[in-house]
Design brief:
77 residues; elongated; three-stranded antiparallel β-sheet; mainly beta
Length: 77
């Protein structure tokens, strides 16, 4: 039965985020499908409790996807 449910139900992809204080130390983690609202949240590859109250290692951060600028069309009057 569980197999049937898993075939028909969509699964949200959860991403990992870390909240950094003004000194760059990790103070919280969150897993969600959309980025958290507020300042200080950065996306990380995984949640690692050893990072709490310490600066994140450079390898932990994920680079944000490059936003492609879409050309704006001039409106004809």
């Amino acid at each position: 039965m569980r197999l049937l449910k898993s075939l028909f139900m969509s699964h949200a992809h959860h991403r990992h985020f870390a909240l950094l204080d003004p000194h760059g130390r990790c103070v919280a983690f969150k897993q969600c499908s959309l980025p958290p609202v507020g300042e200080g949240w950065v996306e990380v590859a995984e949640t690692h409790l050893g990072w709490m109250n310490r600066p994140l290692p450079a390898s932990a951060r994920l680079n944000p996807l490059a936003v492609q600028a879409q050309p704006q069309q001039a409106l004809a009057s």
